Amino acid sequence: MRIVVAPDSFKGTATAASVAEAIRDGWLSARPDDTVTLAPMADGGEGTLDAFETAVPGAVRVPITVTGPDGSPVDTSWLRLPDGRAVVELAATSGLPLMPSLQPETATSRGFGEAIAAALDAGATGLVLGIGGSASTDGGESVLDVIGDLPLPSGGVVVLTDVTSPLLGPTGAAAVFGPQKGITPDRVAWFDDRLAEFAGRFPDVDPSTPGAGAAGGVGFGLLVWGATLARGASAVADVLGLPALLDGAGVVITGEGRYDGQSAAGKVPSVVRTLTASHAPGARSMLVAGAIDAPLDDYDAAASLTVLATQTTGEPADALADPLRFARIAGQRLARMVG
Q1: Residues 6+ apart with CB under 8 A from 99
Q2: In the chain, where the domains are located
Q3: Which CATH superfamily includes the segment(s) 2-39+241-338?
Q4: Model pTM greater than 0.85?
C-alpha cells in the first residue's frame, strides 16, 4: 500500500518534516512493506520555508540577520527559488516564539520587512510571503516602515495566510489573536482603535478584506503595499504538487499541533482532507495531532499525542516535551488499524 504523510508543523515543538518522518518510521515498524511518501505542509506560518525547501529542488537558503520582534538581532534566512522568486517567512523573523516574554505594546514585525528588502536587494523577481505566527499587532506599520517605498517585483507578491479575519472589530486582529500575544481584555479596544487610526491613512485599502487581520494586521500592511493575499495551505499544496502525490494512495495522514474548531477553516488538515477526497477518493484519511478538540467525522482514524503520552507515561505534558516519540507511536498504531 502507498501512504502519503502530509502534516503541518506542530508549532513550537516540531517541524512538519520531522513529524512526517516520525509518523513514517512508526508506520513502517508495523507495515514494513508499504511505501510511504512524505509531503510536509505549511499554511504560511512556521514551517513554510521548510515545506518549500523540501518541495522545490534547487531552492537555496540565504542567511541574514534582522531585527527581532523584541528589537534584538535574529539570525534567520530566506529561501531563493530556482525561478528567481524568494520565500520569506514572518515566523522566522518576527514570530511569537522569538519573544523572551510577551510584549504586546512594543513587539515589532520590522525584521520581516528587512528580510523582504534583503531578498529584493539580492534580485528576487517575485515574493512568496508566509505571515503566520507574528508577535505584534501593529497593522503592518513596522513592515511598511521598511518596504513601503520599494517597488513591487515584476513577478508580484503573493501572501500566504490561513487567516480570513478582517483587520478590525470583534473578529479582527486585536480581538481574536491579541490575547495570545499578551493583549489583555481591557486593552483590546485600545489596540483596535490604534489599528483603525492606522487604516484610516489608506482609504483605498479595505480593512474588512478577508486576511487583512492576519499576523496582527501585517496582511493589511501588505495589501497597502500592493500584494495579493492567498489561502496559505492551498497555495503550498499546489507548489508541493500534493494533488499528484495523492493519486493512488491507500492512506493519507495529515495533522497539526492542535486540531480544534478552527482547523476546518482552511488549515492544513482541511486542505489535505479535501484534496484526498477529490484525488484519492478511495483512500482512508487519518489524523495525528498533539491535541484533539473537535469532531473527527471526516477521518477514518486519529491519534492524539497527548492521549498517547498519558497512556504510555502517565504524563500528558510528555507529548510537548518529546512530540516525535509519540508521533512515531501514533504512526505505528494507525498502521495497525489498517491490518
Answers
A1: 69, 70, 107, 135
A2: 2-39+241-338, 48-233
A3: Glycerate kinase; domain 1 (3.40.50.10350)
A4: no
